[in-house]
Amino acid sequence: MPRYYGEDVAYIHDVGHADFALDAAPGILEILDRSGIHDGLVVDLGCGSGLWARELLDAGYRVLGIDISEAMIEIARSRAPEAEFTVGSLFEVEIPRCVAVTAVSEVLNYLFDPENEELGLGHLFRRVYEALSFGGVFVFDMLGSGQVPSGTKSEGFRVGEDWAVLTEREEDAERGTMERRIVSFREVGDLYRRTDEVHRVRLYEPSELAAGLEQAGFQVRMMQAYGGLPLSENHTAFVARKPAQERGTAERV
What we know:
Shape: globular
CATH architecture of the largest domain: 3-Layer(aba) Sandwich
Radius of gyration: 18 Å
Helix content: 25-40%
Order of helices and strands: HHEHEHEEHEEEEEHEEEE
Structural class: alpha/beta
Strand order of the largest sheet: 3-2-1-4-5-13-10
Number of helices: 6
CATH superfamily of the largest domain: Vaccinia Virus protein VP39
């Protein structure tokens, strides 16, 4: 399997792209609070460098983070040593009994696991549903089509104190996918080290995802913001709740 978010790309993502996870955190914590979930185990799929895990720990939750990138998990373990982290595909790693599952910053869009792509998100939704305690929630956000105008390419450039990254995005409307080409440069001694990665994502219609969640048994709510953080166009957040068990028999993890 190809390597994604290798050492340098993971480092740049952590130091240069932390805003979304940190700005989304208060809104997601509010969702947990309003759902009556004030403690217990939260499983974070595509946990990255542990920014959201750190926020969860500080709020009093226990955390299991899962990510396919060894470099990301290494950073996460340093940032949130109290949490548990596992390297692996979210399609394969066991999801233990928990009060909530999160997947922040469109991580479910990524096509990082070709061997399991055919299973689709429906299979993942069912696994999450079975893992959640009654009344538990699944909170995530996804990209839809229209990220890049048809027939064009979107280019970007960002620079930090010891790094620079160039990106190019191109959408394939017929296949419902988008490709991100990433060229990163990280200062190492007196030189800069170059890394090239290509990330593919599948773009979903929100109604399609809502239907899949409902088929798995969830009660679904869609949002265009995490609290005070508005999402960009064609970027939707989902709160999928597993119905509560009968009064007097609810369980807590």
